[in-house]
Amino acid sequence: MAYEFTKEDLEQIEKIKAKFPEVKPATLPVLWVAQNRFGHVEPEVQRLVAETLGLPEAHVHGVATFYTQYYKEKMGKYVLDVCTCLSCQLCGGYDILHHIEDKLGIKAGETTEDGMFSVQQVECLGACGYAPMLQVTNGKYVNHLTKEKVDNLIKALKEGKEPDYEQMEMPLRKV
Amino acid sequence: MSSADWKNYKPVLIPEIKDLHKIDVYEKNGGYEALKQVLTDKKKFDGPKSVIDEVKAANIRGRGGAGFNAGLKWSFMPPADGGPRYLACNGDESEPGTFKDRKIFEYNPHIFIEGALIAAYAMQITSIYVYIRGEYIDYVKMMEKAVQDAYDKGYIGKDILGSGFNVEFHVTYGAGAYICGEETSMLESIEGKRGYPRVKPPFPAQKGLWGRPTTINNIETLSCVPLVIKNGASWFSEIGAKNHPGPILYGISGHVNRPGVYELPSGVPVHDLINEVAGGMRNGKKLKAIIPGGSSTPVLRADQLEGVSMDSDSLREAGSMLGTAGLVVMDEDTDMVDVLWRIAHFYHHESCGQCTPCRDGTGWLEKILLKIKNGDGEVKDLDLLLDITTQMEGRTICALADAAAWPVRHTITRFRDEFEARCKKSVHAMA
Ligand SMILES: Cc1cc2nc3c(=O)[nH]c(=O)nc-3n(C[C@H](O)[C@H](O)[C@H](O)COP(=O)(O)O)c2cc1C
Ligand code: SF4
Ligand code: FES
User: Fold this and answer.
1) What is this model's ipTM?
2) Rg of chain B in Å (alpha carbons)
3) Does residue A119 have a pLDDT over 70?
4) How many domains is chain A partitioned into structurally?
5) In a shared domain, residues A92 and A151
6) Rounded Cα gap, residues B120 and B159, in angstroms
7) Are residues A84 and A139 located together in one domain of the fold?
8) Do the Cβ atoms of B104 and B219 come closer than 8 Å?
9) Nearest-5° angle of CA B298, CA B300, CA B303?
10) Choosing among B126, B131, B253, B400, which should be mutated to test the A contact, i.e. which has the most A CBs within 10 A?
């Protein structure tokens, strides 16, 4: 399949380039534009990014493979990134991961047959006080997970309802 | 305000003001006054150097982990030569146990923007980049809005407040890589490359972004700057602990009743933070250990915490560090072998692989710890682990290797019995 950026994408790419004194720094943000458009940055998409920016394909490939948030292959419609790092581990992150694995019938690193869900185990997402937690497809954080909360999340996602931004208060703050 | 008096402390970094993230509300509450003073009040500030001197005197110690005096760092920038100069603001926030800069993005983004602008003026900087971890996409959007609002009000851009000072401000973000929090790796990432830390020297003040003079500061560090300008260096340096003064955003996680981020003076006693601020231990369990400032800072056993407070001197005496003030609390049921293996897994996963002692060392640490965790360890493996840490420390391009080695060395030393007991259970020990 031939990938193409839309007119809006190309306008956005011009704005990105204007932020920097040279073209190379646009690599990460334009890979993001591409992933937001196509859902992943598999090699064909990396080539499109390289051509659009006039940069060597090897450079774009090198960047795409260095950073974990870029999907180098097609993923499920929803990617559940479950944190099992230090604070999440202490607060039951592995129980949450295993519950999700059992529920979806896949292991971390896999995608369900219907293409709805991928599950990944990830490193600290900077939400340690709200552990255990997960992130949905590089987007919203879902915090203070329990098995029930996970069940409700999966049910909602199946119906196409994505979670809202959860504001996490500073506990002693009075406003 | 002394550390002991923390109960009467009123937050200043994230004060209790509704909708403070909106620029109008920020302005109504004295926002951008510090920038105005610096740029236009010639009686108070006579040029960039006077600003650096004030910040240096306040002794804002870097909140990104290393604790370096911010004003002193600024003074390392070479004299302006008419070419571009950069400020790179570190919002990568990826050290396990750390989740505080996001509160500034969310609740008080303009205090950070104002601090960065003052820093830029003080160092005659022409462009500011803030680099936020890619997972924080919601905070990236909040920051983009805040920066645009500040542009629209004329606090960023050309001839700011009629002073003749010009500066650009750009929001950039990563795509998942802990190493990009290391300052030179962050510069590589902003430049659009793989985040490989650079060999120092040259230091960023000489050759930073695009080979030009660059200063790197953490978000919370820069957010302290408007407070220093408005209230004076001595006001700031009298808050909290003597050698590490000022407000601190403590992130408390793990087995406490009320985890979260709390703004308090530096130097709050560890026991107060756990028992009073964070609501005590979950399920009435006993405290076993803490990691005081993010996963790389050495673990402390409960019996090492008598009289210890959250400042660099007190923690150093106790055998650890303040780091990012991300306090991880562990109760009596915590399995230290599991915890250490998970920390080792993190550093192995995040090593960029440029240096052999780090790439191989982090791999071996994880592998041997996994073996011990699975009940196949031998007591001599513990000494092998300690030996590997010695071979990693101080021999690499960046400090990730040290950050990976310290927890292994200190957790094994401080919980030796627990590790040995796990090894003795193993088949090898019985044979
Ligand atoms: C492996 C590694 C990861 C780091 N991650 C961060 C980070 O996420 N955020 C941060 O502010 N500093 C981080 N640092 C520290 C930075 O290199 C740098 O010291 C800091 O941003 C300087 O700002 P400060 O002086 O205001 O603290 C990290 C350092 C290392 C070695
Ligand atoms: S110490 Fe590790 S993370 Fe740092 S540059 Fe070397 S290999 Fe990369
Ligand atoms: S350990 Fe899970 S968010 Fe930090």
Assistant:
1) 0.98
2) 22
3) yes
4) 2
5) yes
6) 14
7) yes
8) yes
9) 165
10) B253
Residues 57-116 of chain A with CB under 8 A from chain B are 59, 62-63, 66-70, 84-87, 89-91
CATH assignment at residue A117: 3.40.30.10
Nearest one of B207, B205, B210, B206 to B192, comparing CA atoms: B210
Rounded-to-10 torsion of CA B44, B48, B53, B54: 40
Both A145 and A88 in one domain: the answer is yes
User: Does a cis peptide bond (omega within 30 degrees of 0) precede residue B265?
Assistant: no
Domains with residue ranges and CATH for chain B: 3-237 (3.40.50.11540), 250-331 (3.10.20.600), 336-424 (1.20.1440.230)
Q: Is the C-beta atom of A142 inside 6 A of ligand 3?
A: no
**What CA–CA distance (Å, rounded) separates B258 from B248?**
18
Give the side-chain half-sphere CA count within 13 A for A47.
Answer: 7
For the full predicted model, state whether its pTM sits above 0.95: yes
pLDDT, tens only, B226-259: 999 999 999 999 999 999 999 999 999 999 999 9
| Amino acid identity at B71 | G
Nearest residue to B179 via CA among B384, B383, B430, B403: B403
Same domain, residue pair A87 and A148: yes
Query: Does the beta carbon of A143 lie under 8 angstroms from any beta carbon of chain B?
Result: no
Q: pLDDT tens, B344-364?
A: 999 999 999 999 999 999 999
What's the CATH number where A36 sits?
Answer: 1.10.10
Same domain, A55 and A105: no
- The dihedrals phi and psi of B116, each to the nearest 5 degrees, come to -65, -40
Whether the per-residue pLDDT at A158 is higher than 80: the answer is yes
**What Cα–Cα distance (Å) separates residue A30 from each residue in A77, A94, A135, B130?**
21, 34, 22, 17
Q: Name the strand (E) or helix (H) holding A15.
A: helix A7-17
Q: Cβ contacts of residue A16 below 8 Å, gap of 6+?
A: A26, A29, A30, A33
- Are B85 and A113 contacting, i.e. CB atoms less than 8 angstroms apart? no
State both tokens at A64.
């795409």
3-state secondary structure of B256: strand
Which residues on chain A are in Cβ contact (under 8 Å) with B254? 87, 90-91
